[in-house]
Design goal:
5-stranded antiparallel beta sheet, 6% helix, mainly beta
Amino acid sequence: MTTLKYIWTAALLLTFASCGASNDNNPLPGEGGGEGGGTTPAPRKQNIFYADPTIFLDNGTYYLSGTAQGGQPSQGFTALQSDNLQEWTSGTEGDIYRLILSPSAGATWGTTGFWAPQWFKDGGTYYFLYTANEKVAIARADAVTGLFTQKEARPIDASVGNIDPFLFKDDDGTYYLYHVRFTNGNVLWTARFDPQTGALDAATLTQCLELTEPWERMGNYDPAAKVMEGPTVVKWDGVYYLFYSANHYKDPDYAVGYATATSPLGPWTKYEGNPILRRDIVSEEGAGHGDVFQAKDGEYYYVYHVWTDGNPDRRQVRIVPLVRQMGADGIYKISVDADRIITPYMLY
Protein backbone atom coordinates (compact mmCIF):
# COMPACT_ATOMS: atom_id res chain seq x y z
CA MET A 1 0.00 0.00 0.00
CA THR A 2 2.81 2.47 0.84
CA THR A 3 4.45 1.97 -2.55
CA LEU A 4 1.10 2.29 -4.34
CA LYS A 5 0.30 5.46 -2.42
CA TYR A 6 3.48 7.35 -3.30
CA ILE A 7 3.63 6.22 -6.93
CA TRP A 8 0.02 7.31 -7.35
CA THR A 9 0.56 10.66 -5.60
CA ALA A 10 3.66 11.44 -7.65
CA ALA A 11 1.75 10.71 -10.86
CA LEU A 12 -1.00 13.10 -9.82
CA LEU A 13 1.49 15.86 -9.04
CA LEU A 14 3.03 15.45 -12.49
CA THR A 15 -0.43 15.53 -14.07
CA PHE A 16 -1.41 18.74 -12.30
CA ALA A 17 1.89 20.39 -13.24
CA SER A 18 1.20 19.79 -16.94
CA CYS A 19 -2.57 19.99 -17.26
CA GLY A 20 -2.82 23.79 -17.27
CA ALA A 21 -5.59 23.92 -14.65
CA SER A 22 -5.86 27.18 -12.78
CA ASN A 23 -3.68 27.63 -9.71
CA ASP A 24 -3.94 30.63 -7.41
CA ASN A 25 -0.79 31.18 -5.40
CA ASN A 26 -2.08 34.21 -3.53
CA PRO A 27 -2.22 33.70 0.24
CA LEU A 28 -5.54 32.81 1.78
CA PRO A 29 -6.96 35.26 4.33
CA GLY A 30 -4.73 35.32 7.41
CA GLU A 31 -1.67 34.01 5.56
CA GLY A 32 1.32 35.73 3.98
CA GLY A 33 4.25 37.82 5.21
CA GLY A 34 6.00 36.97 8.43
CA GLU A 35 8.45 38.83 10.67
CA GLY A 36 11.59 40.15 9.04
CA GLY A 37 10.03 40.36 5.60
CA GLY A 38 9.70 36.58 5.25
CA THR A 39 6.72 34.92 3.70
CA THR A 40 4.81 31.77 4.46
CA PRO A 41 4.40 29.62 1.36
CA ALA A 42 0.76 29.78 0.40
CA PRO A 43 -1.07 26.59 -0.48
CA ARG A 44 -1.92 26.19 -4.12
CA LYS A 45 -5.51 25.95 -5.33
CA GLN A 46 -6.76 23.45 -7.85
CA ASN A 47 -10.19 23.03 -9.44
CA ILE A 48 -11.86 19.82 -8.29
CA PHE A 49 -12.28 17.41 -11.16
CA TYR A 50 -15.08 14.94 -10.47
CA ALA A 51 -18.08 13.98 -12.55
CA ASP A 52 -21.24 12.60 -10.89
CA PRO A 53 -20.18 14.04 -7.51
CA THR A 54 -21.56 13.12 -4.11
CA ILE A 55 -21.08 14.80 -0.72
CA PHE A 56 -21.45 13.00 2.61
CA LEU A 57 -21.47 14.72 6.01
CA ASP A 58 -20.05 12.62 8.82
CA ASN A 59 -19.10 13.77 12.33
CA GLY A 60 -18.88 17.41 11.28
CA THR A 61 -16.72 16.87 8.19
CA TYR A 62 -17.82 16.88 4.55
CA TYR A 63 -16.51 14.18 2.22
CA LEU A 64 -16.57 14.49 -1.56
CA SER A 65 -16.13 11.81 -4.22
CA GLY A 66 -17.22 11.13 -7.77
CA THR A 67 -16.21 9.75 -11.13
CA ALA A 68 -12.48 10.39 -11.56
CA GLN A 69 -11.48 13.18 -13.94
CA GLY A 70 -8.42 15.32 -14.60
CA GLY A 71 -5.64 12.73 -14.50
CA GLN A 72 -6.87 10.64 -11.58
CA PRO A 73 -6.64 6.83 -11.74
CA SER A 74 -9.34 5.26 -13.91
CA GLN A 75 -9.68 2.25 -11.60
CA GLY A 76 -11.36 3.05 -8.32
CA PHE A 77 -12.39 6.13 -6.36
CA THR A 78 -10.74 8.95 -4.46
CA ALA A 79 -12.06 11.43 -1.90
CA LEU A 80 -11.52 14.89 -0.46
CA GLN A 81 -12.71 16.42 2.79
CA SER A 82 -13.71 19.88 4.00
CA ASP A 83 -15.02 21.81 6.97
CA ASN A 84 -16.76 24.52 4.95
CA LEU A 85 -17.66 23.23 1.42
CA GLN A 86 -15.27 25.75 -0.20
CA GLU A 87 -11.77 24.51 0.68
CA TRP A 88 -11.00 20.81 0.26
CA THR A 89 -7.98 18.63 1.03
CA SER A 90 -7.16 14.93 1.07
CA GLY A 91 -6.95 15.00 4.86
CA THR A 92 -3.62 13.15 4.74
CA GLU A 93 -0.06 14.39 4.49
CA GLY A 94 1.37 14.25 1.00
CA ASP A 95 -1.75 13.13 -0.87
CA ILE A 96 -3.70 15.24 -3.35
CA TYR A 97 -6.72 12.95 -3.58
CA ARG A 98 -7.13 10.15 -1.05
CA LEU A 99 -7.61 6.69 -2.54
CA ILE A 100 -10.61 4.99 -0.88
CA LEU A 101 -11.48 2.12 -3.24
CA SER A 102 -9.34 0.36 -5.81
CA PRO A 103 -9.14 -3.20 -7.19
CA SER A 104 -5.37 -2.96 -6.78
CA ALA A 105 -5.72 -2.20 -3.06
CA GLY A 106 -8.46 -4.62 -1.98
CA ALA A 107 -11.13 -7.01 -3.21
CA THR A 108 -13.68 -5.01 -5.21
CA TRP A 109 -15.81 -5.58 -8.28
CA GLY A 110 -14.79 -4.24 -11.66
CA THR A 111 -11.89 -3.33 -13.89
CA THR A 112 -13.21 -0.30 -15.79
CA GLY A 113 -15.95 2.34 -15.80
CA PHE A 114 -15.84 3.33 -12.11
CA TRP A 115 -18.70 5.82 -11.98
CA ALA A 116 -21.22 7.62 -9.79
CA PRO A 117 -20.55 6.61 -6.16
CA GLN A 118 -22.55 7.10 -2.98
CA TRP A 119 -21.63 6.81 0.70
CA PHE A 120 -24.13 5.34 3.14
CA LYS A 121 -23.72 4.82 6.89
CA ASP A 122 -25.69 2.35 8.98
CA GLY A 123 -24.68 1.94 12.60
CA GLY A 124 -20.90 1.73 12.68
CA THR A 125 -20.57 0.45 9.12
CA TYR A 126 -19.87 2.61 6.09
CA TYR A 127 -21.08 1.47 2.69
CA PHE A 128 -19.85 2.69 -0.66
CA LEU A 129 -22.07 2.04 -3.66
CA TYR A 130 -20.67 2.49 -7.14
CA THR A 131 -20.70 1.40 -10.78
CA ALA A 132 -18.02 -0.67 -12.50
CA ASN A 133 -18.18 -2.65 -15.75
CA GLU A 134 -21.72 -1.24 -16.13
CA LYS A 135 -22.93 -3.05 -13.02
CA VAL A 136 -23.72 -1.67 -9.56
CA ALA A 137 -21.68 -2.92 -6.59
CA ILE A 138 -21.48 -2.25 -2.85
CA ALA A 139 -18.39 -2.31 -0.63
CA ARG A 140 -17.95 -1.62 3.06
CA ALA A 141 -15.41 -0.26 5.54
CA ASP A 142 -15.09 0.72 9.19
CA ALA A 143 -14.19 4.32 8.28
CA VAL A 144 -15.67 6.85 5.89
CA THR A 145 -12.35 7.04 4.02
CA GLY A 146 -12.06 3.29 3.49
CA LEU A 147 -10.36 1.36 2.11
CA PHE A 148 -13.70 -0.07 0.97
CA THR A 149 -13.69 -3.75 0.06
CA GLN A 150 -16.01 -6.69 -0.57
CA LYS A 151 -15.89 -10.19 0.87
CA GLU A 152 -16.57 -11.37 -2.65
CA ALA A 153 -15.82 -9.20 -5.66
CA ARG A 154 -19.20 -9.21 -7.43
CA PRO A 155 -21.97 -6.90 -8.64
CA ILE A 156 -25.37 -6.66 -7.00
CA ASP A 157 -27.30 -7.70 -10.12
CA ALA A 158 -25.54 -9.28 -13.08
CA SER A 159 -28.75 -9.89 -15.06
CA VAL A 160 -28.77 -6.60 -17.01
CA GLY A 161 -26.66 -3.47 -17.39
CA ASN A 162 -27.25 -1.18 -14.41
CA ILE A 163 -25.50 1.97 -13.17
CA ASP A 164 -25.82 5.02 -10.87
CA PRO A 165 -26.86 3.53 -7.50
CA PHE A 166 -28.56 5.44 -4.71
CA LEU A 167 -29.45 3.65 -1.46
CA PHE A 168 -32.38 5.06 0.52
CA LYS A 169 -33.55 3.93 3.97
CA ASP A 170 -37.20 4.64 4.75
CA ASP A 171 -38.59 5.47 8.19
CA ASP A 172 -39.71 1.85 8.71
CA GLY A 173 -36.16 0.57 8.16
CA THR A 174 -36.76 -0.74 4.63
CA TYR A 175 -33.99 -0.08 2.13
CA TYR A 176 -34.55 0.77 -1.53
CA LEU A 177 -31.89 0.75 -4.21
CA TYR A 178 -32.60 3.37 -6.89
CA HIS A 179 -30.52 2.90 -10.01
CA VAL A 180 -30.47 3.02 -13.81
CA ARG A 181 -31.22 -0.12 -15.83
CA PHE A 182 -30.53 -0.45 -19.53
CA THR A 183 -34.10 -1.12 -20.58
CA ASN A 184 -35.06 0.87 -23.69
CA GLY A 185 -32.34 3.39 -22.91
CA ASN A 186 -31.20 4.52 -19.47
CA VAL A 187 -34.27 4.10 -17.28
CA LEU A 188 -34.74 4.75 -13.54
CA TRP A 189 -35.78 1.76 -11.44
CA THR A 190 -35.96 0.84 -7.77
CA ALA A 191 -36.32 -2.28 -5.64
CA ARG A 192 -36.08 -3.30 -2.04
CA PHE A 193 -32.54 -4.08 -0.99
CA ASP A 194 -30.68 -5.81 1.85
CA PRO A 195 -27.32 -4.09 2.46
CA GLN A 196 -26.18 -6.89 4.76
CA THR A 197 -26.37 -9.52 2.05
CA GLY A 198 -26.09 -7.20 -0.92
CA ALA A 199 -29.20 -8.78 -2.43
CA LEU A 200 -31.79 -7.01 -4.55
CA ASP A 201 -35.40 -8.15 -4.15
CA ALA A 202 -36.18 -8.77 -7.83
CA ALA A 203 -39.87 -9.28 -7.07
CA THR A 204 -40.14 -5.61 -6.10
CA LEU A 205 -38.34 -4.16 -9.14
CA THR A 206 -40.36 -1.14 -10.24
CA GLN A 207 -39.75 1.37 -13.00
CA CYS A 208 -39.87 4.88 -11.57
CA LEU A 209 -40.13 7.19 -14.58
CA GLU A 210 -39.88 7.37 -18.33
CA LEU A 211 -39.03 10.16 -20.76
CA THR A 212 -42.11 12.31 -21.36
CA GLU A 213 -41.00 15.97 -21.36
CA PRO A 214 -39.25 18.02 -24.08
CA TRP A 215 -36.46 19.17 -21.73
CA GLU A 216 -35.51 15.52 -21.10
CA ARG A 217 -34.48 14.97 -24.75
CA MET A 218 -32.94 18.14 -26.16
CA GLY A 219 -30.98 16.22 -28.78
CA ASN A 220 -28.05 18.63 -29.17
CA TYR A 221 -25.62 15.72 -28.84
CA ASP A 222 -27.54 12.61 -29.90
CA PRO A 223 -31.23 12.87 -30.90
CA ALA A 224 -31.62 9.13 -30.42
CA ALA A 225 -30.33 9.11 -26.82
CA LYS A 226 -32.82 8.08 -24.15
CA VAL A 227 -31.16 9.01 -20.89
CA MET A 228 -32.49 9.40 -17.36
CA GLU A 229 -29.86 8.91 -14.68
CA GLY A 230 -28.25 10.09 -11.45
CA PRO A 231 -31.12 9.40 -9.02
CA THR A 232 -31.20 10.85 -5.50
CA VAL A 233 -34.14 10.36 -3.14
CA VAL A 234 -35.03 12.34 -0.02
CA LYS A 235 -38.13 12.33 2.15
CA TRP A 236 -39.52 15.62 3.46
CA ASP A 237 -42.70 15.87 5.51
CA GLY A 238 -43.95 12.46 4.38
CA VAL A 239 -43.34 13.07 0.67
CA TYR A 240 -40.63 11.37 -1.40
CA TYR A 241 -38.61 13.51 -3.80
CA LEU A 242 -36.72 11.81 -6.63
CA PHE A 243 -34.09 14.03 -8.26
CA TYR A 244 -32.74 12.88 -11.62
CA SER A 245 -30.76 14.05 -14.64
CA ALA A 246 -31.84 13.79 -18.28
CA ASN A 247 -30.24 14.23 -21.71
CA HIS A 248 -26.81 12.83 -22.46
CA TYR A 249 -23.99 14.22 -20.31
CA LYS A 250 -22.35 15.37 -23.57
CA ASP A 251 -25.39 17.52 -24.33
CA PRO A 252 -24.85 21.13 -23.16
CA ASP A 253 -28.49 21.09 -22.00
CA TYR A 254 -27.96 18.18 -19.63
CA ALA A 255 -30.30 19.08 -16.78
CA VAL A 256 -31.86 18.13 -13.44
CA GLY A 257 -35.50 17.77 -12.46
CA TYR A 258 -37.48 16.01 -9.77
CA ALA A 259 -40.65 14.03 -9.18
CA THR A 260 -42.69 13.32 -6.04
CA ALA A 261 -44.61 10.37 -4.61
CA THR A 262 -46.28 9.20 -1.42
CA SER A 263 -44.55 5.80 -1.64
CA PRO A 264 -40.89 4.93 -2.31
CA LEU A 265 -42.12 2.70 -5.15
CA GLY A 266 -44.19 5.49 -6.71
CA PRO A 267 -46.15 6.33 -8.75
CA TRP A 268 -44.13 9.50 -9.34
CA THR A 269 -45.41 12.89 -10.49
CA LYS A 270 -42.93 15.15 -12.25
CA TYR A 271 -42.69 18.76 -11.10
CA GLU A 272 -44.32 21.03 -13.67
CA GLY A 273 -41.51 23.57 -13.26
CA ASN A 274 -38.72 21.18 -14.34
CA PRO A 275 -35.87 21.47 -15.02
CA ILE A 276 -34.58 23.15 -11.88
CA LEU A 277 -30.94 23.11 -12.97
CA ARG A 278 -29.63 23.62 -16.51
CA ARG A 279 -27.15 25.89 -18.28
CA ASP A 280 -29.73 28.67 -18.70
CA ILE A 281 -30.16 28.64 -14.90
CA VAL A 282 -26.58 28.21 -13.65
CA SER A 283 -24.73 29.68 -16.68
CA GLU A 284 -22.47 26.66 -17.30
CA GLU A 285 -22.84 23.87 -19.83
CA GLY A 286 -23.52 20.24 -19.00
CA ALA A 287 -24.86 20.95 -15.50
CA GLY A 288 -26.23 17.88 -13.77
CA HIS A 289 -25.84 14.42 -12.24
CA GLY A 290 -25.25 15.11 -8.59
CA ASP A 291 -26.60 14.53 -5.13
CA VAL A 292 -28.72 16.25 -2.47
CA PHE A 293 -27.19 16.70 0.97
CA GLN A 294 -27.92 18.62 4.15
CA ALA A 295 -25.22 20.98 5.39
CA LYS A 296 -24.17 21.54 8.99
CA ASP A 297 -26.43 24.61 9.20
CA GLY A 298 -29.47 22.55 8.18
CA GLU A 299 -29.69 23.99 4.65
CA TYR A 300 -30.02 21.59 1.70
CA TYR A 301 -27.67 21.74 -1.27
CA TYR A 302 -27.24 20.03 -4.61
CA VAL A 303 -23.72 19.09 -5.70
CA TYR A 304 -23.30 18.56 -9.45
CA HIS A 305 -20.80 18.68 -12.30
CA VAL A 306 -20.30 21.08 -15.21
CA TRP A 307 -18.14 21.01 -18.32
CA THR A 308 -14.64 22.49 -18.18
CA ASP A 309 -14.00 24.98 -21.00
CA GLY A 310 -16.58 23.31 -23.22
CA ASN A 311 -15.13 19.83 -22.69
CA PRO A 312 -17.77 17.31 -21.48
CA ASP A 313 -15.06 14.73 -20.73
CA ARG A 314 -13.35 17.02 -18.23
CA ARG A 315 -15.96 17.87 -15.65
CA GLN A 316 -15.62 19.69 -12.35
CA VAL A 317 -17.70 20.26 -9.22
CA ARG A 318 -20.22 22.91 -8.29
CA ILE A 319 -22.49 23.22 -5.22
CA VAL A 320 -25.75 25.17 -5.14
CA PRO A 321 -28.30 25.80 -2.35
CA LEU A 322 -31.79 24.41 -2.81
CA VAL A 323 -34.78 26.69 -2.21
CA ARG A 324 -37.91 24.95 -0.93
CA GLN A 325 -41.31 26.64 -0.89
CA MET A 326 -44.23 24.68 0.53
CA GLY A 327 -47.25 24.57 -1.78
CA ALA A 328 -50.91 24.42 -0.82
CA ASP A 329 -50.85 20.71 -1.69
CA GLY A 330 -48.24 19.96 0.98
CA ILE A 331 -45.48 19.44 -1.60
CA TYR A 332 -42.39 21.62 -1.86
CA LYS A 333 -41.70 23.57 -5.01
CA ILE A 334 -37.93 23.37 -5.38
CA SER A 335 -35.51 25.65 -7.19
CA VAL A 336 -31.81 26.48 -6.91
CA ASP A 337 -30.26 29.71 -5.67
CA ALA A 338 -28.01 30.44 -8.65
CA ASP A 339 -26.69 33.60 -6.97
CA ARG A 340 -24.95 31.50 -4.31
CA ILE A 341 -23.23 28.80 -6.35
CA ILE A 342 -20.07 27.51 -4.67
CA THR A 343 -17.05 26.75 -6.85
CA PRO A 344 -15.06 24.50 -4.52
CA TYR A 345 -11.30 24.19 -4.80
CA MET A 346 -8.64 21.86 -3.50
CA LEU A 347 -5.71 23.06 -1.42
CA TYR A 348 -2.45 21.21 -1.88
